[in-house]
């Protein structure tokens, strides 16, 4: 697991999974939480350093009120039941997203979980809750613009590093691998700045059916990818240099 430091997952398909069984969408979310717990434990056991789960997007607030409250209740129940297990498994808990909209009791439990797991040195688990990448970028731009206006920074100091530090993900590296379940092929406002060089992995499996072994498959697939970050390396570089030489000889 040395080369992969951060896996992020868009846990999609709960609603369809439930509907396929003639059950309400919320039934899929209940199963989805159970799967999330298993995947978190598995990631910790594999020795992964960072796992980020898209639990609730800024757009999810526009879902029917009943579904939103079930999702918030599930979050509350998860934190009540699991914070102790996070500590036992040496997992440090983080969130990204605008928590001001989250019910007060959930916010309190989130803060409690962060404080109680702060000393844990294993997996860094980040829940994206009320999260939107565009909103996150607006926040970073506003903070930089304010400092620029107040003369705290100058224009030529603005660089990637400064932006990274002002995003909500400043506690972890960019994701190496982003997994999306349920056969949808998009990022849906998730980590769009951070995903610049992430490898993307899509599977048709609906999130409630996702198993530990499906994570293993995604990790194996990742290992076989050639990541060049826009450069050329190894064999490709040698081939290219040969071609260049030939071109030069032909006066191209
Ligand atoms: C997408 O499925 C899933 C969500 C909007 C919520 C994801 C949340 C969970 C799995 C629960 C995680 C919570 C904790 C506490 C770990 P969808 O409803 O969009 O499914 P659909 O695309 O089939 O409609």
Short overview:
The chain is α/β, with parallel strands linked by helices. It has helices at residues 14-20, 25-46, 65-88, 104-117, 133-149, 160-166, 212-223, 234-249; strands at residues 6-10, 50-57, 92-96, 124-131, 177-180, 199-202.
Describe the structure.
This protein has one domain: Decaprenyl diphosphate synthase-like (Undecaprenyl pyrophosphate synthetase), CATH 3.40.1180. The protein has helices spanning 14-20, 25-46, 65-88, 104-117, 133-149, 160-166, 212-223, 234-249; strands at residues 6-10, 50-57, 92-96, 124-131, 177-180, 199-202. It is globular and about 55 Å long. A 6-stranded parallel beta sheet has the order 3-4-2-1-5-6, with helices on both faces. The chain has 8 helices and 6 strands; from the N terminus they run βααβαβαβααββαα. 47% of the residues lie in helices and 13% in strands. By secondary structure, the chain is α/β, with parallel strands linked by helices. Helix 1 crosses helix 2, helix 2 runs parallel beside helix 3 (65-88) and helix 3 runs parallel beside helix 4 (104-117). The structure holds farnesyl diphosphate (FPP). Residues 11-16, 25, 29, 32-33, 36, 55, 60, 74-75, 78, 182, 207 line the site of farnesyl diphosphate.
């Amino acid at each position: 697991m040395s080369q992969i430091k951060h896996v992020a997952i868009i846990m999609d398909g709960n609603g369809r999974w439930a509907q396929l069984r003639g059950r309400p969408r919320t039934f899929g979310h209940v199963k989805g939480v159970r799967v999330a717990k298993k995947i978190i434990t598995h990631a910790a056991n594999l020795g992964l350093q960072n796992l980020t789960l898209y639990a609730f997007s800024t757009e999810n607030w526009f879902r029917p009120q009943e579904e939103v409250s079930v999702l918030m209740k599930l979050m509350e129940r998860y934190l009540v039941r699991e914070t102790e297990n996070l500590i036992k498994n040496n997992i440090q808990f983080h969130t990204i997203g605008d928590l001001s909209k989250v019910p007060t009791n959930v916010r309190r439990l989130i803060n409690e979980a962060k404080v109680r797991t702060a000393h844990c040195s294993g997996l860094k688990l980040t829940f994206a809750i009320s999260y939107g990448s565009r909103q996150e970028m607006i926040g970073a731009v506003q903070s930089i613009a304010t400092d620029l206006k107040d003369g705290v920074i100058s224009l030529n100091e603005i660089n990637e590093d400064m932006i990274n530090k002002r995003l909500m993900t400043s506690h972890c590296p960019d994701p190496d691998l982003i997994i999306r379940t349920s056969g949808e092929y998009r990022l849906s406002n998730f980590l769009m700045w951070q995903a610049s060089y992430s490898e993307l992995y899509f599977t048709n499996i609906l999130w409630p059916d996702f198993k530990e072994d499906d994570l293993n498959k995604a990790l194996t697939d990742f290992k076989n990818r050639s990541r060049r970050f826009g450069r050329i390396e190894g064999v490709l570089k040698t081939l290219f240099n040969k071609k260049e030489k030939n071109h030069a000889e032909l006066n191209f």
